[in-house]
Every structure is written in C-alpha cells, then in structure tokens.
Amino acid sequence: MSAQRKIGIIGLGHVGAHVANSILLQGIADELYLCGLHDQKVISEAQDLHDSLSFVPYNTRIVNCSNRYEDLADCDIIINCAGHVAQSATNRDGELFSTTESARTFANQIVGAGFNGILVSVANPCDVVCTAIWKLTGYTPTKIIGTGCGLDSARLRSEISKVTNISPKSIDAYMIGEHGFSQVAAWKAASIAGKRLSELAKEYPEQYGFDRAEVEERARKGGYVTFAGKGCTEYAVANCTARICSAIFHNEHAVLSVSTLMTGQYGEEGIFTSLPCVIGANGVEQVYTLNLSEAEEEGFHKSCQHIRENIARLDEI
Question: How far apart are CA 248 and CA 259, in angstroms?
Fold first, then answer.
C-alpha cells in the first residue's frame, strides 16, 4: 500500500473551507488536517466535512488541529489560507499587514517542527506573502508555491472562451506577474491548437478579432465581479488550489502559472511572482519564460516593482 497523502490547511474562512471541500470531493487527500484560530469554526468545519464522507469518492481522515501548527509537520502539503477577506474589498493589497503577520505566527513553527513538504500559499497579496514566508523561514523556495496567476489565467481563458466560443480547456493563455491589478496577459504567446491568437485573428477576424484590452481587463477584475455579490471568492480559487495539490501528488509535471521565486527571469530576482511553472512532486521543477511583446515585458517589470513596493511597506521581513 502507498503512503497516506496528507494535506494541512491553515485558515478556515471562505477560501480555506472551500479548499477543504474541493480536496474532499476530488479525493485528493487521504488525511486532511484543519488548523485555525477560532476553535468553534474548526470544530464546525471538521464536522461538516466529516458528514460529507458518504458522498465523496474516498474515505478521508479529518483531523481538528485547532491552532497547533506543529501538528501539521508530517503533512505532504500545507495550504496557507489565513486571511481577512473584508480587507481586500477594493484590492488585494488591503490584506498586506494582516496576512504577513499571520505568516509570522505559523511559518517558523511548522518548519521548526520538521515540516519538509510543499507549502502552497493562497493568502493575499499572494506574491508578498510567499516572499515573506521564504525570507522568514529560509525554506527551500521551490517548495513554496503561490496560487498566484493560476486563477487569473483561468479567468483569462474563461473570458477568451466567451468571445470565441472555444472551450477554455483548449486555450493556452497565461496571466503573469502579480496576483493583483498589475498582472499582465501574455497575448503574444497565447495560442489555440498550436496557432497563435494573432494568426487566428487574421484568418478568422469575426471570431478572434476581439478587443484584447477589454478581455484582459475583464479577466483582471473578474474576482471583484464575484466579490461584489458574495463578499468573497471561493469556488475557483479553491479548485485552483486543489489542482496544484493534485499535480504535486501525481508528480504530473503540469504547467501552471503560479507564484515562484524569480532567479533572473526577465532580469528579475529576489521576489515571488507568477510565470508558467512545471509542478511535480518536488514543487516548482522548472520556470518558463514566454515570448513577450515589449509592452508585455514592460508591464511585467512594473508588476514586479509593485510587489517590491508592497514588501517595502512592511516593517521587517
């Protein structure tokens, strides 16, 4: 028999609870460890998830860890969902101080307790939180993955799908840079069936000659359409997180746009931000650079600069 697949979740608000549910519904983990600051919330979520076991693909052991972060040390993956969604009502930078402070409370504890798995961080501003965790812990950067533009890339494909009537699963297009308003659509590299969108626009102008700036802006602001009526985002980000976990457990070598440490890509280094990455059992195994237009590369640098400005706002990392 294979080893048990263990996932720990820190933070059980809207996102954390939906991440747990998505993982359960897809049968991704054998054991699910729940960790949060509010005891009754953890108890209630654990109960609700346990009551779902009759309806999911596989039996999963659900463990209430309360606020004992050290209990997550044996997990293969720990997911950081600790956040304050109301603070991001206008932009994701609103959670800057609260989420980085939350990271301080658990980051060293889990590494000090012997955690040696993959840390997937969802909390916003995603790229800053990932950079903070890396600097706070000195942990292997390839084992820290921010959900980053994985969700934004899905939103971009969704918006392209709406105007072209092509399945989003058949569209190869990425958002890169910050998981925030400075993110950039890599249009020059976008393709369908191996043909770039720019070529398709010439061949089928009625179908593919859409307003790229308008589509990009709808993708960029898509989360706030969701937020406007719900006061949060839940389903898509939860499924994005579950997708990353599945790629790790199955050693898929799946290419996803996630936040990872820049080590010289486009001349950027020392911060986390999103580019297409190969995700497998060891975390981020390869980082791809795309063929960008001058405007897109300039936008990527501006996005990285915004991340640095947010980092500079913190007293100490």
Answer: 15
Q: Which residues lie below 8 Å from residue 219, measured CB to CB, with a gap of 6+?
A: 152, 155, 156, 158, 159, 175, 185
Per the DSSP assignment, residues forming a β-bridge with 72 are none
pLDDT one-digit tens code per residue, 150-165: 999 999 999 999 999 9
- Tell which residue, 268, 271, 35, has the closest CA to residue 148: 271
| pLDDT over 50 (residue 1) | no
d(CA 82, CA 101): 10
Q: Is the pLDDT of residue 89 over 80?
A: no
CA separation, residue 317 to residues 113, 136, 214, 312, 313 (Å): 21, 6, 37, 9, 10
Look-up of token digits 């958002």: 175
> Helices 126-137 and 294-313 sit at what angle, rounded to 10 degrees?
60
Q: Are 56 and 27 in contact (CB under 8 A)?
A: yes
* Catalytic-residue membership of 179: yes
If pLDDT is split at 50, 70 and 90, which confidence band does 28 have?
Answer: very high
Q: Does residue 241 surpass a pLDDT of 80?
A: yes
Nearest Cα residue to 34 out of 96, 48, 117:
48
296 closest CA partner among 259, 257, 256, 266:
266
Supply φ then ψ for residue 80, to 5 degrees.
-95, 110
Catalytic residue among 179, 250, 253, 301: 179
Mean pLDDT along residues 16-25: 97
Q: What is the pLDDT of residue 98?
A: 81
Closest of 148, 109, 123 to residue 12, by C-alpha: 123
Q: Is 123 helix (H, G, I), strand (E, B) or coil?
A: coil
Tell me the pTM.
0.94
Q: Which residues of 103-130 are buried (b: 16+ CB within 10 A; e: fewer)?
A: beebbbbbbeeebebbbbbbbbbbbbbb
Burial degree of 168 (CB within 10 A; 0-12, 13-18, 19+): middle
